[in-house]
Backbone:
């Protein structure tokens, strides 16, 4: 196995959102909160701080720390359910928003499940996503397609971290909700921004 640094499970969401944001957070340790990240953090803190308990044959463990060197991941699960009758483990991830059109929440959940599989030598068939905005729990089947997507994405993040180079900004709609916009300065440093800046200089000279 290659000697690669462990990827934080949270990097999966960051990488899917913007590769530059992922590198700023995980390579350069940059962080800044906006109302979206603050709300998400509060939600996770509430969930993670609950005491373990058993109800109706289900054990609920919160804030479960995981490390899976073979998979190359480390991180924390919001909630891990152990259903004693079926002997099934079910990871549950809490999200502040509503279900996304892409699969990234499912990929993050699958990564969590695969960590538990590696640590406990068990097979996990399903996980669940709980969305604060819609107050709905969605069952997610951890099928082969989702597992392949997850492994591919972890590999891409490892490659980004091995390069030890923060990618340039990709100025777009996502920047409007990015908490790192003041640190990133995408309007100044993206390709388009530089071109506009250079043309503006020449326009000034021509006057
Ligand atoms: S401001 Fe835009 S380009 Fe910069 S890190 Fe955020 S999303 Fe990425």
Residues:
């Amino acid at each position: 196995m290659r000697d690669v640094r462990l990827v934080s499970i949270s990097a999966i969401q960051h990488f899917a959102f913007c590769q530059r944001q992922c590198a700023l957070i995980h390579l350069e340790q940059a962080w800044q909160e906006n109302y979206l990240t603050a709300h998400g953090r509060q939600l996770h803190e509430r969930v993670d701080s609950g005491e373990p308990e058993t109800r109706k044959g289900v054990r609920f463990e919160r804030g479960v720390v995981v490390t899976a060197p073979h998979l190359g991941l480390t991180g924390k699960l919001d909630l891990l359910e152990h259903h004693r009758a079926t002997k099934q483990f079910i990871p549950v991830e809490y999200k502040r928003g509503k279900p996304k059109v892409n699969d990234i929440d499912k990929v993050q959940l699958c990564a969590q499940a695969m960590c538990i599989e590696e640590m406990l030598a068990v097979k996990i068939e399903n996980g669940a996503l709980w969305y604060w905005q819609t107050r709905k729990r969605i069952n997610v089947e951890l099928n082969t397609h989702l597992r392949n997507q997850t492994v591919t994405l972890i590999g891409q993040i490892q490659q980004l971290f091995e390069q030890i180079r923060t990618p340039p900004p990709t100025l777009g709609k996502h920047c409007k909700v990015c908490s790192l916009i003041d640190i990133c300065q995408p309007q100044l440093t993206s390709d388009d921004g530089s071109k506009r800046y250079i043309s503006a200089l020449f326009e000034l000279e021509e006057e």
